[in-house]
Design a protein that fits this description.
It comes from Mycobacterium attenuatum. This protein has about 180 residues and is an alpha/beta fold. It has a domain of about 120 residues: Rossmann fold. It is built from five helices and seven strands. α3 crosses α4.
Length: about 180
Amino acid sequence: MASEAGLLDAHFGPETGSRWSTGAIGSRTSSSIAGLTNSPGALRGFGVRQGDRVAVLLPNCAAFLETMFATAKLGAAFVPINIRMAAPKVTYLLADSGADVFVWSAQLSPLARAALAGEGVRVRARLIVGGRPTGAEAEFEEVLASGEPKATGISVAGNDLCCLMAAAGATGRPKRPC
């Protein structure tokens, strides 16, 4: 992160009235990591390992950035999904990417839950941002609060898979650009 590298601090989230410095995002990212893996806390608690896939169905928000940075620090692949896609396309991307974790915004819950019910989806951890979890879901902020910022001890190489993007697939299924 920029502040960790001694660069000038930047601020995110002006559209919501919130201010997030790169240092704050870095700290929350480290908390996310703790819960995504198997150590006490956030993303580690969901067993995310190097090479896993973390899919997100989120609008532009701090949780999008936090999840993206936490995923990269873990050596996992970030799988952003366009919030305007229909459920069958979201299902396809979850299955095709092999998503292990799925993070979505509460406002997109009907779409996310419909996609999760589709064929071939093997998501093992489900996180909702800003809403009430049901069943096997967890709430994003509660997961972050359970994490304690600490170094991961994970070595991520420059050629490790970091992100799996897809075009919307206007004429058929979503397509990966490369």
